[in-house]
Amino acid sequence: MTQPNLPKRVFSPAKTDAATARAVTPAPQTQDPAYRLAFQDDEFLLRDDLRPIRFQLEMLKPDLLLDEARIGSTIVFYGSARIPSPDRAEALVTACATDTQRHIAERLRAKSRYYDEARKLAQLASTTPDDAEGRRQFVVCSGGGPSIMEAANRGAADVGADSIGLNIVLPHEQAPNPFVTPSLSFQFHYFALRKMHFLLRARAVAVFPGGFGTFDEMFELLTLIQTGKMAALPILLYGRDFWNRVIDFDALVEEGVVSPNDLTLLHYVETAEEGWSYIQQWYRSRETPSQG
User: Fold this and answer.
1) Smallest Cα–Cα separation from 37: which of 27, 26, 24, 54?
2) How many CB atoms neighbour CB 170 within 10 A?
3) Cα 118–119–120 angle (5° rounding)?
4) Distance CA 279, CA 233 (A)
5) Per-run averaged pLDDT (10 residues), the chain, 292 residues
């Protein structure tokens, strides 16, 4: 007996039934929310007791689309949304009305060089060839917003490479920067799921000067590695002077709340070339020697 031509499925796809459900004849029964298909019922999906389902959806959607886009690994960029690009830095200082504003603007202007370094690092990482299975490696991934995040996505775009943006819904508008690849531009409701996606494919992380959000992301990463929940990976800390001024890491050791070895998780750098060289060296040093 020859192999029969078996159908791939016997039930209608959900997409088909969804279209049929939208075209239903109006009636008191069909117009009541109870009649809606569960996955088409926003009011139902947004109930508090559906939070576990929403967690699953925010986990699944980006993961599936990144898999389909053949994203094997990422280089993650953390950093302030307030540091101006060099071409905007002078205008920021000029617009100041008080000495206090001018002092802050000048400090931000001094850090504007990190916009260029983030952009260059993204350019370098984005030239990484695909692996033997055709999966893309060291794909640039940022929070999708302005400043350092914009610089990262812009650097990838400079060399014709795709890049990822992980935006989050905030009380004030946070639109994706124009350099994020549209099909890799994601929006999250839950910070926890967004942070998880930052690290699931991360094989290197570059941390530029930043505030509460940058601290939050960096310290969570350090905690995951310190506790053994996550394997070690290269962590670049851009701007030794900035970080030594805002965080006394040595004092944490002196107080006995972290070990001296914990500080070796961080590697201070100043330039894109220095950072990319360290990442390459880090992985070369862990290659398994071939057996002769």
Assistant:
1) 24
2) 8
3) 90
4) 9
5) 81 93 93 94 96 97 98 98 91 92 93 97 98 97 97 98 97 89 97 97 98 97 97 98 96 96 97 98 81 44
